[in-house]
């Protein structure tokens, strides 16, 4: 019952009260800005759902990325295969340089050229026959005086000159063929070369370890022929 | 005597402003009820002082137990689905007005 005690206690209590009051006022002010409590619960639930959804999407993304990588790899492989195919086809068409074992044939007009009649000079038919024999003996690539023989190559007489791939070639004719050297040489020696020699033409056939064939150097243009649609 | 309480209040407000102590919004409801109980206790103490039957122990225990109980009851009510804190607000509000009225009369009588 001492009135003296009152002030201090009251002061302490008032102090606590003021402190609580301030905190509460601050929180209330925040509450005005913040959404109501129920909404916060709802938002929390939604946040959980969305987080789960994000996780799922991230997983989906990683799997899709893996798929993309696989597909890109597959694309690279396909591209390489196509390029290889193109290179192979160019090689087959004779559009690239090629080399391999084979034979070298030097074919020249009979000696005393110009004085004798030109009846026994090398003509286009002789070259045809020679190329035919070579092909029959399994030659896989042929060139005459630096002109590659392809499916489009023509060999014809223009006056007294022989024209191959629209280029004039002069004797002595140097025919290079890639194939089995022994086979090529034997089949020539036992056939057409013997005939050439009978006609006084100068022929030598030598086996070569490495024959280098030039590339077909004409522009290939097909204006009329089209691929036939497969039925 | 009264001015000491006012000084305490001012100091408390000042401390509350300085210390950036926040209460989660979820608990603000309970704090408000506790605050009302505290206010009621203080006015009750002042009134008892004026009526010369002030007991320090009763005042202190009353202050803290009322404050805590009000908060706890509000919390329990929330859990039970009964809006108990409105009852607390009502009761404490009425008592605060009563106490204030009595204090006013004492001040006017002198």
Automatic annotation (TrEMBL), chain A:
<comment type="similarity">
    <text>Belongs to the UPF0749 family.</text>
</comment>
<keyword id="KW-0175">Coiled coil</keyword>
<feature type="coiled-coil region">
    <location>
        <begin position="40"/>
        <end position="67"/>
    </location>
</feature>
<dbReference type="Pfam" id="PF05949">
    <property type="entry name" value="DUF881"/>
</dbReference>
<dbReference type="InterPro" id="IPR010273">
    <property type="entry name" value="DUF881"/>
</dbReference>
<feature type="transmembrane region" description="Helical">
    <location>
        <begin position="6"/>
        <end position="23"/>
    </location>
</feature>
<keyword id="KW-1133">Transmembrane helix</keyword>
<keyword id="KW-0812">Transmembrane</keyword>
<protein>
    <recommendedName>
        <fullName>DUF881 domain-containing protein</fullName>
    </recommendedName>
</protein>
<keyword id="KW-0472">Membrane</keyword>
């Amino acid at each position: 019952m001492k009135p003296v005690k009152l002030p201090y206690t009251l002061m302490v209590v008032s102090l606590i009260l003021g402190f609580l009051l301030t905190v509460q006022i601050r929180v209330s002010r925040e509450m005005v800005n913040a959404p109501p409590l129920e909404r916060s619960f709802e938002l929390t639930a939604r946040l959980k759902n969305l987080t789960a959804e994000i996780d799922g999407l991230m997983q989906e993304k990683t799997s899709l990325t893996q798929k993309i990588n696989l597909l890109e790899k597959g694309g690279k492989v396909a591209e390489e295969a196509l390029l290889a195919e193109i290179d192979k086809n160019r090689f087959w068409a004779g559009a690239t340089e090629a080399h391999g074992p084979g034979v070298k044939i030097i074919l020249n007009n009979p000696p005393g050229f110009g004085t004798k009649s030109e009846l026994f000079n090398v003509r286009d038919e002789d070259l045809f026959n020679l190329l035919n024999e070579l092909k029959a003996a399994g030659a896989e690539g042929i060139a005459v005086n630096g002109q590659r023989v392809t499916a489009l190559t023509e060999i014809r007489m223009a006056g007294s000159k022989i024209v191959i791939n629209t280029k004039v070639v002069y004797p002595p004719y140097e025919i290079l063929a890639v194939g089995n050297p022994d086979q090529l040489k034997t089949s020539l020696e036992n056939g057409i070369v013997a005939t050439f020699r009978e006609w006084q033409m100068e022929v030598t056939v030598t086996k070569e370890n490495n024959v280098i064939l030039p590339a077909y150097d004409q522009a290939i243009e097909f204006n009329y022929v089209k691929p036939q649609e497969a039925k | 005597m009264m001015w000491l309480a006012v000084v305490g209040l001012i100091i408390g407000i000042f401390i509350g402003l300085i210390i950036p102590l926040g209460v989660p919004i979820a608990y603000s409801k309970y704090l408000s009820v506790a605050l009302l109980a505290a206010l009621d206790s203080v006015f009750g103490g002042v009134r008892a002082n004026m009526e010369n039957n002030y007991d320090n122990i009763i005042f202190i225990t009353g202050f803290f137990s009322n404050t805590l109980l009000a908060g706890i009851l509000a919390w329990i009510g929330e859990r039970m689905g009964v809006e108990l804190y409105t009852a607390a607000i009502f009761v404490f509000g009425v008592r605060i007005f009563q106490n204030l009225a009595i204090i006013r009369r004492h001040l006017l009588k002198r």
